[in-house]
Amino acid sequence: MAKIGLEIHGYIETKEKLFCDCPSDHGKKDARPNTNICPVCTGQPGSKPLMPNYEAIKKAVQIALLLKCKINEKMPWQRKHYSWPDLPKGFQSTFSGSHAIPNGENGEFMGIKIRECHLEEDPAAWNPDTGEVDYNRSGSPLIEIVTEPDFKESEEVAQWVKNLIVALSYIKAIDKKSGIKADVNVSIPGGKRVEMKNINSVKKIKEAIDIEIERQKKEVPEIEETRMYDERSKTTKIMRTKEGAQDYRFITDPDLPVVSLSKEEILKIKDSIPETPQEKLQKLIRIHEIDKKTAEILTKKIEIVEFFEEVTKKIPAEFALPWVTVELLGTLNYNKKELDDVEIEPEHFIELLKAVRERKITELRAKDILRSWIPKSYSPQKEIRKSSKIEDKDEILTLAKKVIIENKKAVEDFRQGDNNTMNFLIGQVMKLSNKRADYKTAKETLEKLMR
Ligand code: ADP
Ligand code: ZN
Ligand code: MG
Questions:
Q1: Which of 48, 124, 135, 336 might form a disulfide with 37, Cβ 3.0–4.6 angstroms?
Q2: Which range marks the domain in which residue 253 is found?
C-alpha cells in the first residue's frame, strides 16, 4: 500500500501584506505587474520591515485551531536563505525551518494527522522565459500545512483536500480564488519517498499520485528525489535528488521581534472563529428544519449558505429554500457560474421573493427575472410593476375565452376526457398574458367555460 503526505500552501486572506502596508491582492490575476509594491516587499537595500501583520498571524492561528493543533505562544521569525530572482532580499521570512516553532503542531483533520502548520511570506513571481519579475504578490502571507503520510490512495487525498478547502474558506482564512498549491509526497513499500512539487489543483493532485504510484511500481525509488508533474504528457519528471537538496541556512531573524501570544489572546482568537460547515449544517437542520440532504446542498459553498441566511432574515426559510436551492443554483449551473462570479444582491432577491409571496407577480415571471440577473442583478420593482400579476377574474375570463376559440381541437379533446390538455390550455392563457395570469384563476375559469 502506498503512503502519501502533503505540504499544502494557501494564501491567507488579509488586507495587507505581511511586513508592509501594500494590499495583499494576490487574487487579482489581471493586475498590472509591479503596481502594488514598496521598498520593503521589493527588498530594497536598507528597507526595514514593519511589525508583522497581526491579521495574518491571527488567521494562521485560526487555521491551526481548525486543524486541532497544539498552539505555540512564542514564535521567532526564521530567515530561509536561497538565491533566486524571485527573492531579492535573499531570504524568505517564515515560521518553518530546522529550529523553528510553527504556529501549530500535532493536529488532526478528518482522520489525517497534521504534523504542523505555519505562516510565511510569498516570494515574487519570476518568469524564466522573459526574465521579468512581478513583485505584486511578494510579501503576501501564506499558510503551509504539512500532513503526516497517512493517506493511502489518490481519491482519499482528493476528497480530503476538497474538504479542507471548504473548511478553510468557511473561516475566511484563505483566499480560495487564488487556489492552493501542494507538494505531494509518495512512497510505496520498500521504496524511498518522492516529492512532487507545486501541483495547483485537486484534479492534478489525484492524477499525479496515480501516475507516480504506477511509475514507482515499475522502477522502485532507491534514493529520495524531487519530481514535477507534467500535465500534458501525464508523466512525472525528475528535478533533483534529495542529496542535492538546498541548504537553506536557517537563522533567527535579528530585525524582527519574536511573535508572542498570550493564552488569553489565543482563547480570544478561538472565540472569533466563524462557524464551520458542520456547525452551519446542524443549525440549518435545527433552526430552519431543513432536511439533511438539502442542508448539505446549501452548505457545500459558504457563499450560498450565507446568501440563504441573508435572505431568511426577511423571507421565511421554507419559502426561500426552493428559490435558492432550485432556482438560483439552477440558473448559476445553467450559466456555468459560481455565485461569487456574479453580482446578485440578496436585497434584490428578497424584493423578488416578496413580490411572489404577496402575489404581485407570478412564479413564472419571477423566474424569468432571476434568469436575467446573470451577471448582475437589478432592483426588480420596475419589472414587477410592468408584469403585475393578473388576478382580475374578468380579465382572465377574456383571455380564457380567446384561448378556447383559438384551440378548438384541444377543447374537444378535453371534453372527451383528456385531462392533459388542461395544462396546454393554461399554458396558452399564460402565454397570452405574458406569464402574468394567476394560475389558479386561469384553471378555474377554463374549467367553468368548458363544462
Ligand atoms: P521535506 O522538508 O524534505 O519535504 P519532511 O520530513 O518535512 O521533508 O516531509 C514532508 C512531507 O513528506 C510530509 O508531508 C510527510 O507526510 C511526507 N512524508 C514523509 N515520509 C513519507 C513517506 N515515507 N512516504 C510518503 N510521504 C512521506
Ligand atoms: Zn510593500
Ligand atoms: Mg517538502
A1: 135
A2: 3-270
Handedness of CA 296, 298, 304, 306 (dihedral sign): negative
With the most atoms of ligand 1 within 8 angstroms of its CB, the residue from 193, 205, 213 to mutate is 193
Identify whether residues 332 and 376 lie together within a single domain: yes
Q: What is the pLDDT of residues 144-160, one digit of tens each?
A: 999 999 999 999 999 99
Does residue 176 sit in the same domain as residue 317? no
Check whether residue 13 and residue 152 sit in a common domain. Answer: yes
Q: Which of 7, 160, 181 to mutate to test the pocket of ligand 1 (most atoms within 8 A of CB)?
A: 7
Cβ proximity of 182 and 48 under 8 Å: no
Grid cell, residue 162, equals 476538497
The total of structural domains in the chain comes to 3
Select from 339, 363, 386 the last residue of a domain. Answer: 386
92 lines ligand 1 (CB under 6 A): no
What's the pTM?
0.78
Q: Is the CB of 141 under 6 A from ligand 1?
A: no
State what percent of residues in the chain have pLDDT above 70: 99
C-alpha cell at 276: 464551520
pLDDT over threshold 90, residue 261: yes
Same domain, 81 and 149: yes
pLDDT tier, 243 (very low <50, low <70, confident <90, very high otherwise): low
